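Support reply, case 0932

Customer input (verbatim):
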Amino acid sequence: MIERKLECDEKMREIKKSADQGNPDAQYEMAWYCLWESNEPPYDRNFAEAAVYYFQQAAGQGHSDAMLDLGALYLDGTIALKPDFDRAVYWYKKSAELLNPKAFRCLGYALGFHSFRDSYHDYEAAYCYFSKGAEMDEENSLYELGDLYAHGLYVEEDAERAFRLYQRSYQVIDGDMDNDCYADACLRIGECYMKGIGTEKDTVAARMYLEEAKSGYEYRLERDAPLEWIDNISSELDRVNRLLAEL
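Our regenerated output:
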């Protein structure tokens, strides 16, 4: 199946050749190619299994991003892989040992909030890992740590610190709409300016950031977001529109 798909794609044939010769970067690229193919209807188990195989090969050679993606597959499961929370955390921690900033974000989510653990929230674990990610300027960790301070979860509520963390996340993202954190950071900053949370009220700034958030969420929906994300993105877009209507 994969060979037939590659018959008309010389570039991917070369990447597969390199992957099969043991190149971890090529294995990682091949894994993502197979993963996208497996996610397109009709969902193909052969591609899904190949994606797992190439992620495993790359991760086994110390490719820290492959470790994260393999962990994500174990966390949620695929048509070729049953969910396994412990294996997910194992690979996230292996990536964290290599100081991949995104690994601390993933551990914060998995150990702090993931529904696989019956919606149990471990805010101490979330704080621990998001703090480490924030120290490395990882944009998602920055705004998630801000949320903990904004709502007083495990830490004492500190609106000003939350606002600074949101701002830093926005600065790190630097206007990149392909970054999934972009709209989330804009929404939080806009709401802070609108309601005077951690900063003085500024309706002009609030509208600017909320409009950016709206554009960001709309872009994510237009960008073929995974089905499991669409409800959440749509909900956040509705929230942004409600806030804009109140200005």
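We compared this against your earlier run and they match. Two observations from our side: DSSP finds 13 helices and no strands in the chain. The radius of gyration is 20 Å. Please reopen the case if you see a mismatch on your end.
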